[in-house]
Amino acid sequence: MLRKYKKVLCALSAMIEDQGVKVRIIRFFSNTWISNLLLCVLLLSVVVPISSKAEDPNFLTISAGWFDFNRQKDPGAEFRVEYRSAQKFWQFKPFLTLAGVSNAMTFIGAGVLLDIYWGPRWVTTPSFAPTLWRGATDDLDLGHVIEFRSQLEVAYRFDDRSRLGLSISHYSNASLGDDNPGTESFMINYSIPFEKLFN
Fold first, then answer.
1. Could you give the CA distance from residue 144 to residue 23 in angstroms, rounded to a whole number?
2. pTM
3. N or C of the chain: less Cβ packing under 10 Å?
């Protein structure tokens, strides 16, 4: 099934052209790692039941962690603030993200996430967000102003619905630029129900 899925994407990428220049965003989805992740998320969204008791409110998520922890071309501290909406489109929820790194890089964007609940306490949250990036350094240039962030988070849910979790993120420009080094972040995330901030 996965082979057929990738063949369709590759065929689409060959068909879609603009003045002889292939639309390279399609290549992003034909990447093995990305296509496997998206396929798993799609399957989980269909087969994993989500009970009404598991519904959560809007969140303000505050994160801190280690930027470029894997390749370490220009590692540093990364800090994020996100607004995660409780509004659903099918089973996906929109969110806004703003991130800053100690090496002066910044990311701002919006995307969608999927909450997958494993009982009343644990939740896995894959997410995807196109972001606008700035701040190339002498040691790390991500190659394009548009960077796609894919992330997987595992979190514990407290009685007040707040969450404490760990996540790994991958930034990539999907070969929109001539160079696509990519990088990863390891983050600690604390999600606060938005209503609690005003009570």
1. 15
2. 0.76
3. C
User: Helix count (H) and strand count (E) of the chain?
Assistant: 3, 11
What values do phi and psi take at 4, rounded to 5? -65, -40
Statement: 50-198 belongs to CATH 2.40.160.20: yes
* Residue 165: Cβ within 10 Å count: 20
Give per-residue pLDDT as tens, 149-160: 999 999 999 999
Q: What is the DSSP string of 112-180?
A: EE--EEETTTEEEEEEEEEEEEE---SS---SSSEEEEEEEEEEEEPTTS-EEEEEEEEEE-TT-SS--
What's the rounded Cα separation, in Å, for the pair 29 and 54?
A: 31
Tokens standing for residue 134: 């700035």
Query: Do residues 141 and 178 touch, judged by C-beta distance below 8 A?
Result: no
Residue type at position 161: R
Domain ranges in the chain?
Answer: 50-198
**2, two tokens:** 């996965």
